[in-house]
Amino acid sequence: MTDYHAQFVDIYHKNITRPGADRLLAWLETTDFFTAPASTRFHGACPQGLVMHSLNVYQALMQHFYTDDENAESFAVCALLHDVCKANFYKVSTRNVKNDETGQWEKVPFYQIEDQFPYGHGEKSVYLIERLMRLKIEEAVAIRWHMGGFDDAVRGGSYAASDAYNAYPLAVKLHTADLIATYLMEQDTSRVPNGHQ
What we know:
Blueprint: H1 4-15, H2 21-29, H3 49-65, H4 72-81, E1 90-98, E2 105-113, H5 122-130, H6 137-144, H7 152-155, H8 160-167, H9 169-185
Antiparallel strand pairs: 1-2
Helix pairs in contact: 1-3, 1-4, 3-4, 3-9, 4-6, 6-9, 8-9
């Protein structure tokens, strides 16, 4: 099994050195961030899916958008921490599913949302990070709008995402890296615990 936790911590320590970084990582260690899924049934719907997704976004961001004049710390902050809002967000439950081979009903595990702090998505990540470590304006905007057109505010007709993308290229890059990770790198990880669909 790949040690996503160790990979995350290694990249984090090498790149994120600003005040509060150690406290933020220590807080993450008290949550289920390193064992949680990234979604209930789509990308990364498996144990460690959230940390795996964060690493994939980092890889996509660095591979497709990093140049020597970019800020490596900002890229690491945005990629690794954009979905901290999903820590302590999912729980494993069970449901009855009919086994096609035996015709018997069986209890199978699945992920469901149990949001203990309903504060949105990107804005919740920004809030949780800022409690322990300051973000630069472009980082906060990028994390806030990393969902792009999938964000409820955008679907409701807001121009704020477009304004954010026009003003802060990092926001466009993070959103694009998130799409690459979700739809191109993680399509074979759409499973719930124990491999049940």
